[in-house]
Design a protein that fits this description.
- By secondary structure, this protein is mostly beta strands.
- It has a domain of 127 residues: Jelly Rolls, CATH 2.60.120.
- 6% of the residues lie in helices and 27% in strands.
- It has 6 helices and 55 strands.
- The strands form 8 sheets. It has a 15-stranded mixed beta sheet, with no helix packed on it. Strands 37-40-42-44-46-48-50-54-53-52 form a 10-stranded mixed beta sheet. A 6-stranded mixed beta sheet has the order 1-23-24-22-20-21, with helices on one face.
Length: 920
């Protein structure tokens, strides 16, 4: 909700589901088109094995409560809007127009200050109508309200009984309005359109839709109705049993859309239920919606039940298209509800959005530092509450006071702001001097909150309250240590105080982070909505850690959480305050820890000088990446995490920071550089070193280590023997104790050393030279040229038409897919073939020395020697022998098509069984 100002820890969700790693769900409402939210989370896509209609794994509908519902996922200070009473008295004056509803009508209008527009409309008893209004045009009406008056001039009473008019505030997408009404009399009614705020102004679009006599939108992919992307469309969930999704749901409307790879497709489905609606007791015409997206093969790729249960039971889903093509959208409702709905869609390009706009409270002013660049912190004594009230009542907030340890940890958290902004924070005992006034309390509905420097909050600006019953604050005060759970809460709340917002809502005029559907579990596009990237997220620390999220346990409450601001927070503060503060200007070692205990946490490096290193000294496997945050909607937007297996802590690097070096430990480490001249030291274990751009120095250390150019955006020349002539990303690189090379996806030239090397060309038309030693050469995809040189080498061409040459030594040749040419040269060589390898040839096969290995084909000698005379000759069915040599049709011999998988041996004939290896 837009009124949010702080953080909470309690949550009450019912069946909320979010899209997993690369298939995303969506959220939000602050996008430059009416009522549509920003796209969704990478944290919850259904597995591809889930069939259409099977959503049982995602459901968790609670029992109907016996008492009042409290939307506890809302922020402290949020209010349930009900503007009906104030609008009723204003509904007077001439009508703005009249309309009839043959099927659908659309009216564009404008609201001035305090105005209600009325439209006359003739309704017919027994017929059902959908009415919708949303902001539109260049100056959209931000928050609408919609009313209905009967022919006698009385407001129609709604499904909740007398005193509840048919009126809607937020029943449409976002804060737009929508309701469905079945006429009880025939006559001239009046539709009222207004803004929720009495001072609201702006343009709007009013739609009126007559429900057709039958279901006009199909429920199969074959008869799916097309979605006009970028519009608001309407439909009706008709009465009847649920067929596709079972008895808990009603009938289904199925739509289709065509996606372009790399774009986000967002859909918000609203069925008239607004923030006052009770999910277990909806009035007639309101829906508890559900939306599911399928790929063309019928696999679920994203789905959503509620935007924020139970306060907002509309649905938002967003799909990030890794591949283009046709996708399908199912819209339905929990039973037994029926009625009309809107589906608002859009195609979004992530490159058009800035993630900093999702963590910036635009309506706030900057913190007012004095002439000495100091802000003052006042800790309220017991009983001092600055007029604050309890979260669930108007009773005065009970202030408990602060102990010295709590004060010290707050000031320690503020040091994280000092190093970014170059300012000071001091404790004051003069409340009139205070910039921040802090309270501790016990208050069940929320965990903590802080008012930004937003004029909307008047004298409350800078007040914060921390619930000591939440996050281990009171009972486990080690939670307040840097890296503890409660310490991260303090960082978060002071983020609000300095003008930062949540990525999951529109507080202070912020956008919603692309891909985010709600406050919890919705990680957004590329999983950027996590505490490791912004402390303003409700998804604490690193939810997608390969070993799982940080354990919220007694042992884990003091470590494994955010101990500094994230890269998005740092960049947003630097943008707002216009400062790049010099910090950590010397040579700094950033040490990755080896245990999950106090001092282990996630931190973002802000460092403006020196020759620095991220280092790990243990024996676990570590990944150290020196890329800084790119602050965009890409996988590196919030930074890249350097971490150790099974440890909940690590580093990201803020935008603009250069860390020069990385040092691994005794495990199998991955060390990745940046565009600087990096020194990468693998030490023990089988390490992978990725220098990226710049002239890098790579020390492999013990083990079998690899210099990799997998990230290069062009082909490279790299030599372990003589690196002076390296090119591309390998230019200037130096190797010591590095045994292996991995190329790029382009055309590479890789050369080994005099030892045993592994050269992997990956994609592209690669040239690999092994030199001395027993080398393994892997061509990968593409038309590759492999030469082993001296030593007993293994040459694997992979896919493509490859040329393989062994030179000296007993070599093994694997042509792979494609039409390959092989030459063994000296030594007893083995040529390995499998089904589907294509038309291959051996130019210098030496009988009684070399051997043809057909083990993988399943053939036996009798399949080739069909006349059973003990040698292959022209009389054998699948063999051609002439003066040019011998051609064996391996594919035909194995029961396949003729002339596809063949083996040609130049100037060789008279082959016997001893020249082959067979399985079994």
């Amino acid at each position: 909700m837009s009124g949010s100002k702080g953080r909470r820890f309690v949550q009450f969700e019912r069946g909320d589901v979010f899209a997993a790693s690369d298939a995303l769900t969506i959220g939000g409402s602050n996008i430059p088109f009416a009522g549509l939210g920003a796209p969704a989370s990478a944290s919850a896509s259904a597995p591809a094995s889930v069939a259409r209609g099977d959503i049982s794994a995602f459901l968790g509908k609670p029992e109907i409560p016996s008492g009042p519902i409290m939307t506890i996922t809302a922020e402290r200070g949020d209010t349930v809007k009900d503007g009906t009473a104030s609008l009723l008295s204003n509904f007077s004056g001439p009508l703005a127009g009249s309309l009839s509803v043959p099927s659908t009508v659309l009216i564009d209008g404008v609201i001035d200050h305090g105005e209600l527009d009325g439209y006359g409309i003739s309704l017919v008893v027994g017929q059902t109508y959908l009415f919708s209004v949303y902001g539109s045009g260049a100056d959209p009406l931000v928050d609408t309200i919609l009313l209905l008056v009967d022919p006698d001039g009385n407001f129609i009473e709604g499904g909740y009984g007398p005193g509840f008019p048919v009126a809607d505030d937020d029943g449409g997408a976002g804060t737009s309005s929508l309701f469905t009404y079945t006429a009880t009399v025939t006559g001239d009614f009046i539709i009222g359109v207004g803004g929720f705020s009495p001072t609201a102004t702006g343009q709007y679009t009013l739609d009126a839709v007559l429900q057709p006599p039958g279901d006009v939108v199909g429920d199969t992919f074959a008869d799916a109705a097309p979605i006009a992307l970028g519009t608001t469309q309407y439909g009706f969930i008709d009465a009847g049993p649920g067929v596709v999704y079972g008895p808990n749901f009603g009938e289904v409307d199925t739509f289709s859309f065509t996606a372009t790879a790399g774009m986000i497709y967002s859909f918000e489905v609203a069925g008239g239920a607004d923030y006052n609606s009770l999910f277990f007791d909806l009035p007639p015409g309101e829906l508890d919606t559900f939306v599911v997206i399928y790929d063309s093969a019928g696999n679920i790729v994203a789905l959503n039940d509620d935007i924020n249960f139970p306060g907002d039971i509309s649905s938002r889903v967003n799909f990030f298209a890794e591949e283009g093509g046709t996708y399908f959208v199912d819209v339905f409702s929990w039973a037994p509800w029926t009625g009309g709905y809107s589906i608002t869609s859009a195609e979004l390009n992530p490159a058009d959005f800035n993630p900093l706009d999702s963590v910036t409270w635009f309506n706030a002013n900057n913190v007012p530092f004095d002439a000495t660049k100091t802000a003052y912190v006042y800790f309220a004594v017991a009983g001092e509450n600055f007029g604050e009230t309890q979260g669930d009542s108007n009773a005065p907030l009970v202030s408990l006071g602060w102990n010295d340890y709590e004060k010290a940890q707050v000031m320690l958290a503020l040091e994280e702001y000092e190093k970014i902004l170059g300012v000071n924070y001091e404790i004051t005992t003069d409340v009139t001097q205070a910039t921040f006034r802090l309270i501790t309390t016990e208050d069940e509905p929320y965990g903590a909150y802080m008012y930004p420097q937003d004029p909307t909050f008047g004298t409350q600006q800078g007040i914060a309250a921390f619930n000591v019953d939440s996050g281990g604050w009171q009972n486990f005060q080690q939670s307040l240590l840097q890296g503890g759970f409660a310490f991260a809460v303090i960082l978060h709340e002071f983020g609000h105080g300095h003008g930062l917002s949540h990525p999951h809502d529109t507080g202070g005029g912020s956008e919603i982070m692309l891909g985010v559907t709600g406050p919890f579990d919705s990680l957004g596009i590329y999983d950027l909505n996590q505490g490791v990237y912004t402390v303003m997220s409700y998804n604490d620390a690193w939810q997608t850690h390969p070993d799982g999220p940080s354990p919220f346990t007694i042992a884990g409450i003091d470590n494994g959480w955010s101990g500094t601001l994230g890269a998005f927070d740092i960049a947003a503060l630097q943008r707002r305050y216009g400062v790049l503060n010099p910090y950590a200007t010397g040579n700094t070692v950033y040490q990755l820890r080896d245990t999950n205990d106090v001092g282990t946490f996630y931190q973002t490096i802000w460092d403006t000088g020196g020759i620095d290193v991220i280092r790990y000294d243990g024996v676990r496997d570590a990944r150290i990446d020196l890329l800084a945050a790119t602050i965009d909607y890409t996988p590196t937007g919030g930074g890249v995490i350097s971490y150790v297996d099974d440890i909940w802590g690590g580093f990201t690097i803020a935008q603009g920071v250069v860390i020069e070096n990385a040092t691994g430990g005794g495990g199998n480490d991955a060390l990745l550089g940046n565009s600087a001249a990096n020194v990468l030291r693998g030490n023990g274990g089988d390490d992978v070193l990725v220098g990226r751009e710049g002239g890098d120095t790579m020390f492999g250390g013990a083990g079998s280590d690899t210099a990799s150019y997998i990230d290069a955006d062009a082909g490279v020349t790299a030599s372990l023997h003589d690196s002076e002539h390296n090119t591309g990303d390998a230019a200037g690189d130096r190797y010591k104790s590095v045994e292996n090379l991995q190329g790029s996806s382009f055309n590479d030239l890789l050369t080994g050393s005099d030892g045993a090397n592994r050269l992997d060309g990956l994609a592209g038309d690669d040239t690999l030279r092994g030199r001395d030693g027993a080398d393994t050469l892997l061509g990968g995809a593409g038309n590759d040229n492999l030469r082993g040189d001296d030593g007993a080498d293994v040459l694997d061409g992979g896919a493509g038409n490859d040329i393989l040459r062994g030179d000296d030594g007993a070599d093994v040749f694997i042509g792979g897919g494609g039409n390959d040419t092989m030459r063994g040269d000296d030594g007893a060589d083995r040529f390995v073939f499998a089904s589907g390898n294509g038309a291959d040839s051996i130019s210098d096969f030496a009988r009684r020395a070399d051997v043809i290995d057909l083990t993988a084909t399943g053939l036996v000698w009798g399949d080739l020697d069909s006349n059973a005379n003990g040698r292959l000759d022209d009389a054998d069915v699948f063999v051609v022998v002439n003066r040019n040599g011998t051609v064996i049709d391996l594919g035909a011999a194995d029961g396949g098509a003729a002339g596809v998988d063949t083996l040609s041996l130049t100037r060789v004939n008279g082959l016997t069984q001893s020249d082959f290896l067979f399985g079994g």
